[in-house]
Amino acid sequence: MEITIGAVVRGGTSLGYTTGSWRDQRPVLEMEKCKDCGTCESVCPDSAVHVVENAYEIDYDYCKGCGLCSYECPADAIHMIREEK
Questions:
Q1: Nearest in space to 74 (alpha carbons), one of 39, 46, 47
Q2: Going from the N-terminus, what domains does the chain have, and what CATH number goes with each?
Q3: Would you tell me how many other CB atoms lie within 10 Å of the CB of residue 63?
Q4: CA neighbours closer than 13 Å in the CB half-sphere of residue 14
Q5: What string of pLDDT tens digits covers the 85 residues of the chain?
Q6: How far apart are the first and last CA of the chain?
Q7: Which helix (H) or strand (E) holds 43?
């Protein structure tokens, strides 16, 4: 078996590539239900969820629509809707 040598890329390079253009669903956050627990931010594999002015916000340029934030939200404050293009 031959082992292929992989490349090492310095951290933070994914921020140079917007990846949300191909998603078919997007999360919608209902702030009135949000408990500010931070679960959505911690489970997002694309770091698309951020705190902005003391509220969570989803950066749709980087969100791929995987639904992890919605699935893991203990307050049921995030719902996935079909993406309209």
A1: 39
A2: 19-82 (3.30.70.20)
A3: 22
A4: 11
A5: 565 566 555 555 566 677 767 789 999 999 999 999 999 999 998 889 999 999 999 999 989 999 999 999 999 999 999 987 6
A6: 45
A7: helix 39-43
